[in-house]
Specification:
The chain is about 40% helix and about 20% strand. By secondary structure, the protein is of the alpha+beta class. The chain is globular and about 70 Å long. It starts with a helix and ends in a 6-residue tail after the last helix.
Length: about 350
């Protein structure tokens, strides 16, 4: 049976995702890094979507999309054209297109606002520059810096963004976030307080090896969303309690169901420290590698413990090359047993006493 190139490429992608999936935790000490982007993002960074070497990454995406996307699609041309249009002029000046580009979120230090947990959240973009002064003076849409070192990015007479310098990067954000941009600019971070000080050796290796890298700090994020999630669940618990008070006997306890989800969320939110995803596009496939780091001393640490032995490469030869999907995985027997026992306890708690 013959398949189209687009179909084969999609299948290869799915197989690559499954075969490179790794959910592990590590105890090796963080490795110092010279990565400048990691030095200006603090360890408290909530999330980051990063592109390493914009030129090469766009070229790799073009190769991967051949035969799938329309022939007229040129990712590199579209990205650079968009950047040029926003900056003005014939080409981006002062920009290092072989450097790092990123979108990130940081919960800035400051007074907490119970009514708005996102009050201190700053979302910005990083553009690596060769020469910041040339970036400001050479791009028509970038205005002169004011007393705070902030320039306006004006497109067709409309102020679309503001930008300032931090290290070797131009930091951009919406105009309404001016105060937060100044606060972020004035943060003293450096190598010891940068995101690189948090990432362990294997995480940094994945970052450097991946043209596209996604990162999320679950512990930082849970501070923002956990109160809302649990408040909503408690509201649901109060509503379904009415049905329980009617005295009807059911196979499951409605309140216990809510408690089940509460405990599941607590296991995930309190036990997961951070996540990283490396994306590597190429002409034949696009691989996704997931890394998960657990909080020490939690159930998640036991569940995500790495197997003591087992080599996935030895199993690849047994797979059917013509299969629609292949999956290889190795799990830690002790961690798997812990997970099974916990799930049995949780499901048992759902059943009402009358049903047992």
């Amino acid at each position: 049976m013959n398949y189209s190139k687009s179909f084969r490429k999609c299948v290869i992608t799915v197989m690559a995702v499954l075969m490179t999936f790794s959910c592990t935790w590590a105890t090796d000490a963080p490795k110092k890094t010279r990565d400048r982007a990691l030095q200006i993002l603090p360890v408290e960074t909530l999330f980051c979507a990063r592109v390493n070497n914009l030129d090469d990454t766009c070229t790799a995406l073009n190769e991967y999309l051949k035969g799938v996307a329309p022939e007229s699609l040129d990712v590199k041309d579209k990205v650079l054209s968009r950047l040029t249009m926003r900056l003005g002029g014939k080409r981006p000046r002062g920009v290092n297109t072989k450097g790092t580009f990123a979108i990130f979120g940081v919960n800035l230090p400051g007074k907490e606002n119970a009514a708005n947990p996102f009050a201190n959240l700053f979302i910005g973009g990083l553009v690596q520059v060769r020469n910041y002064e040339k970036f400001v003076s050479g791009n028509p849409n970038v205005g002169r810096a004011d007393d705070d070192g902030i320039s306006k990015l004006t497109v067709d007479g409309k102020e679309e963004a503001i930008v300032t310098r931090k290290g070797r990067f131009a930091v951009m954000c919406p105009p309404r976030s001016r105060d937060k941009l100044i606060r972020f600019k004035n943060m003293r971070i450096g190598r010891k307080r940068g995101l690189g000080a948090l990432l362990d050796k294997s995480e940094q290796e994945l970052l450097r090896a991946s043209p596209i890298w996604l990162y999320g700090n679950v512990q930082q994020g849970s501070k923002l969303v956990a109160p809302m999630i649990f408040a909503k669940i408690e509201s649901m618990k109060a509503e379904i309690k009415k049905a329980q008070e009617e005295g009807k006997t059911t196979m499951v306890d409605p309140a216990a169901i809510v408690d089940f989800y509460i405990e599941m969320f607590e296991i995930l939110l309190k036990g997961t420290d951070r996540l990283g995803i490396g994306i590597v596009p190429s002409a034949e496939k696009c691989t996704f590698t997931l890394q998960c780091r657990a909080v020490e001393g939690t159930l998640m640490e036991q569940l995500l413990s790495a197997p003591e032995s087992g080599n996935l490469d030895e199993l690849i030869g047994y797979l059917d090359n013509g299969a629609f999907m292949n999956l290889i995985a190795k799990v830690d027997r002790k961690g798997m047993n812990v997970g099974y026992m916990k799930m049995i306890d949780l499901f048992a708690s759902i059943l009402s006493p009358d049903a047992i």
